[in-house]
Amino acid sequence: MNIRLLAVFALLTGISLPVRAEGDIEWRHRATQGAVTLSANPLGLASRTAFYSARGFAAEAIRPYAQACGFSFGMQNGGTATLSTRLADWRAVGTDGRAVRLRLPAEWDLQWAKAHVPEAARIAFRWAQFQAENVFEAGDWIMGMATLEAPLSGSFRLVARYHDEKGNHEIVLDKLACGHDSSAN
Amino acid sequence: MSPVVGVPPAPTLALPDMDGKIIDLARYRGKLVLVNFWATWCPPCRTEFPSLGRVRKLFKSTEFEVIAVNVGEDMETVFSFAATPAFPVLFDRDALAMARWQIMGLPTTLVVDRQGRLALRAVGGREFDDPVIVAQLRELIRQGRT
């Protein structure tokens, strides 16, 4: 069962099996600013449904999440300064200037509580997400899934804000698009 | 791995192992202990897992131990991934230990020094037998002897 789950997660994250190192992850979108690298892969409905169903979600319960515009994100601190980032400060910006925030893991978890999703499934969900608040020491890196609060049609850019000892910064991923199973997975 | 600011005391950790026996971190006081939080569905966790066994072999068992804390999964799932690990695998089924240890993402690894304090932390995958990390561990063992 674990090999099957790994294969599903590989689909979700875009990695090639076997997984050997973080450098093996094939990211479709990547930006580097100074010592910070931000990466993303679009996620489709079928792969997310399969992954979370295998973790204990009923297909009906996970559907809103699987249908949302979702990505797997990776963020790495290749420098020596401590970085921090809050998902609440990230925005997806459409070509028309419309800005959409990302839905936080805790907001999804409230929905899972109301839907009586089993605790084990909620734990797996919680830790498979890009966490709401992250602190990166030298060499640290984090990956996880996240969804937009509302879909954006066409391409858009993701503006991710982070903080270090010199102040606030932005790193931008261009030309993102919501994933569709026919092309993204 | 990065130094933990203030070197605070390690939170408590007493969880069942793969045989259902409760293993308490306190029993390892006097040893350096590398505590790895992981899950089988987490690709970087799987990648780094073999290096936990390799790094354990580099040190005397009287000086160093590795503990892998699985988050939220059952024994069958873990057993099918790591049937006979060379170190204790503990089960944090409700993720309460993760909360106590203020873990912010998987995998996260902490090194508890011989005085039971949090000395080093790494967020994201590592190869723990990397010479740089091994040197950090050796230095902590050396400091603990003095």
Structure description:
The complex is a heterodimer of chains A (185) and B (146). Chain A contains six helices and ten strands; from the N terminus they run αββααββββααββββα. Chain A has 185 residues and is an alpha+beta fold. Chain A has a single domain (2-184), classed as Immunoglobulin-like (Sandwich), CATH 2.60.40. Chain A starts with a helix and ends with a helix. Mean pLDDT of chain A is 87; it is low at 1-7 and 13-21. Chain B has one domain (2-145): 3-Layer(aba) Sandwich (Glutaredoxin). In chain B, the strands form two sheets. A six-stranded mixed β-sheet of chain B has the order 1-8-7-4-5-6. Chain B has a two-stranded antiparallel sheet with strand order 2-3. Chain B starts with a strand and ends with a helix. In chain B, 45% of the residues are buried. The A-B interface holds A 1-2, 5-6, 9-10, 13, 15, 19-22, 25, 51, 55, 76, 119-120, 123-124, 126-128, 131, 133-144 and B 1-2, 39-44, 46-47, 71-74, 77, 80-81, 93-95, 98, 104-106, 121-127.
CATH topology of chain A: Immunoglobulin-like
Gap from first CA to last CA of chain A: 20 Å
Beta-strand percent range of chain A = 35-45%
Helix content bin of chain B: 25-40%
Sequence of secondary-structure elements of chain A: HEEHHEEEEHHEEEEH
Biggest sheet record of chain B? 6 strands, mixed
Text of the CATH class of chain B: Alpha Beta
CATH architectural name of chain B? 3-Layer(aba) Sandwich
Q: Could you give the order of strands across the largest sheet of chain B?
A: 1-8-7-4-5-6
Quickly count the helices of chain A.
Answer: 6
Rounded to an integer, what's the Rg of chain B over CA atoms?
Answer: 14 Å
Q: Could you say how many structural domains of chain A there are in total?
A: 1
